Amino acid sequence: MFIIKNRRIFYIFSAILILTSIASLFVWGLELGIDFKGGSVIEIRYVDARPDATVIQNNISALAKSIDLGAYVLQSVGDTDYSIKTRLVSDQERQQIESAFSNNGFIKTELKKVNSIGPLIGKEAAQKAIISIILVILCIVLFITFAFRKVSKPVQSWKYGLMAIVALAHDVIIPTGVFSILGHFKGYEVDTLFVTALLVILGFSIHDTIVVYDRIRENLSVSLKENNKKDFETIVGESVKQTFVRSINTSMTTILALFVLYFLGPEATRHFSLALIIGVAIGTYSSIFIASALLVTIEKFQKKA
What we know:
alpha+beta; 305 residues
């Protein structure tokens, strides 16, 4: 009952996180990867020992003065590779980049990977990503409305779906805002893997929310049969209490696995796993502290209306 009685505290906390995220998105936006804006990714493997990072950085910086590489991102990959993300480059420019990595041929290297995406394809990918998220949210609303169709008192079934969507918006906005901040200060980019992470977060979060909502439905049914006349706030509080440990345990085991992936996994999945860590944590929080509490708020608002 503590969670439901003190729901305003959690509303304020969530509002601060959401407003900070939205402000960051408006001020800084997102650092889009080449999946969305187009560009080239070139990965070079060093056959022998990989040179010091400053040598590579100096060579690439010198090259960037002669040919405009745009806002490039240079990073190490594993123990032997380096990669650079830059604007769409020609074959001749790619050869110049390879030469910079090899210190004009004095260091033995081999070209491991070249990926190039045009801006039109990138724009199409961004549109499809937005459509995918909208369709997933719409399907979730329809499913919850159908699943809870027999629950009409004191809150109608479609309002369960509506409150779940509010919680899902909360779960998408906050990780996106975090990546906006990280993109501004650390150069973190969002790509198709980030969109995949958001879709996973939506699925994980709604799963937790439905577990709590289903317990509310069961307790409402029991209360009706036994005619014990518990008020809605009490029933929701008991339902949250009954599912609290299960939700936390499920999320913690998932987050622990994601931490292992983040620290020990390949560089390519690091940002993906970070997005999932943030999203799963926020999704669990919203399922317990926000989605159910909103039902109580709606029910009390109905009484006053």
